[in-house]
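Q: I have four molecules that I believe assemble together. Could you output structure tokens for the complex as a whole instead of separate predictions?
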Amino acid sequence: MSVNFFDITYFIEVAETANISRAAEKLGITQPSLSTAIKRLETELGAPLFLRNRSGVILTPSGKDFLNKGRQLLQHWHHIQSEIYKTEHEIRGRYILGCHPSVSLYTLGHFLPELLQTHPDLEIVLEHDLSRKITEQVISHQIDFGIVVNPVLHSDLVVKPLCNDTVRFWRCKKPSPTQMPETANALLIADPHLTQAQTLIKKLRKAKVEFPRFVSTSSLEVATELTSKGLGIGILPERVVRQYHAKELVPVSDDWPIYQDKICLVYRSDYQKTGASKEIISRILKHKYQ
Amino acid sequence: MSVNFFDITYFIEVAETANISRAAEKLGITQPSLSTAIKRLETELGAPLFLRNRSGVILTPSGKDFLNKGRQLLQHWHHIQSEIYKTEHEIRGRYILGCHPSVSLYTLGHFLPELLQTHPDLEIVLEHDLSRKITEQVISHQIDFGIVVNPVLHSDLVVKPLCNDTVRFWRCKKPSPTQMPETANALLIADPHLTQAQTLIKKLRKAKVEFPRFVSTSSLEVATELTSKGLGIGILPERVVRQYHAKELVPVSDDWPIYQDKICLVYRSDYQKTGASKEIISRILKHKYQ
DNA sequence: TAATTACCATAGATAGAATCTATGTCTGTT
DNA sequence: AACAGACATAGATTCTATCTATGGTAATTA
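A: Yes, here they are, computed for all four components at once.
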């Protein structure tokens, strides 16, 4: 016997009509039904809402109070209904987009400003982490969309390729007199968490190339910066190099191994298609990212 | 199939548990019941709230939205419930007090300041009109309480005497040389709508006393003021005279008819006894009004 | 691969409500 | 005194919310 929104509507009609019988007619129910519905509300609120009279009913002080408050509550409910409808069908709401920080630098700029400008009620929360972690979080519903490098295949995952990249060994073009990144015996700069770096190092080892020292960083931007300063040889994606240091860095050698990266949009295959999610996906796919 | 507040509570529990079966246990209902309750909500809102999964359920974007909004709505409802409880049991709310304007001047001051100071959430709306009109409006539920003169008897009306008054003919004590209210042939000042004035004039006519000219006003204060200025003979209640002009006015003669007024508190016998109404009644009755 | 487990959905039965019809009660009116 | 108009009450009925039992699916384990 919980109060539902019909009961409140009933109450308001009775209050306005001041007559249960006539209110019942208007509402298309019988007088006894309406009488018990009102009694139900009174029990639930613990207060009499009407004085029963020969000529009809009159609101008690509590009844007058609840007339205002009930109207507000009903309005609140209708507002929520329409808001949820909008969230479902219009382009609005909060969506979480996961993306590796370096990948963010050359992808987000292509669609995010326009997307957010076009849809002022749309909110995007960016989460930055390793592609692997992002993908896991997409699979586990913690993140709505991911822009990631070389996603693992997963039956629940939709993978849409966006562009390619090449990870290889780089050194600075014009070594300064003091700092000489000699290929042999050079210092290696890389993010050891990246699969790409791990694979490339292994391949090089098979070719009997070893690096005596290793500088590890979780930021590819930092790695690129250090490489361009002549600190050593960096394992860097081409697109990161191109971002700020295109003129200062060159690939070490054509013989050295490379790793092909695929930058992809990923989202769960059962992802709820709202107006906003469809728009986000289509905007991300629309661009070519060179 | 209208949404009730239990459904919303159910939804919140499921959202927090992310598992219909376990949420059902917590809520003390079965899993299928909860499944259909959720479906009911989804139908009513026109949006899927959860993605069903092997490992449980996950909120959709609309579901996340409704989790916030539903919590707010539930809070709104609980707030209303407690507010109505307060309106019923505590001393607060809006109450309409009807009172003749002149009677107001020597009654309200005795209890109203203290009453409103003691109960900051209590609101009193004053309505001023003839006692007869006030009483009618109390009977017809338009006014909660009346402080009126000589109320008509009515089966629905509770009448509590507060104090007495005497309406008689007054003239100014020291007539100025220019303005002489000679008893015979004098000007009569009165509110013709008052039963008291009508009755006194009739009685005087039977005693063969007639007034050639008549000044009518609906304000007893104005009548008293004019009488005190020597304009003529006023039909005035003693308490109004005492208010500001006690020293300037005297009764015309002991032989002339007088009218006994009873000032009473009135309210409907079926009036809903809330905490506030009980307090208002007791405060009004507590005073002696001299 | 097959069995098991942990989910949610569905179907049919059941119990609890809300509603309906019919009647009762009260009061003011004719 | 009969009637009319209002709400309350009682019992029957119809809905519907919930329950039990079962089915389907995917991950996990033997």
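A: One point stands out. The first strand of chain B starts at residue 50 and ends at 53.
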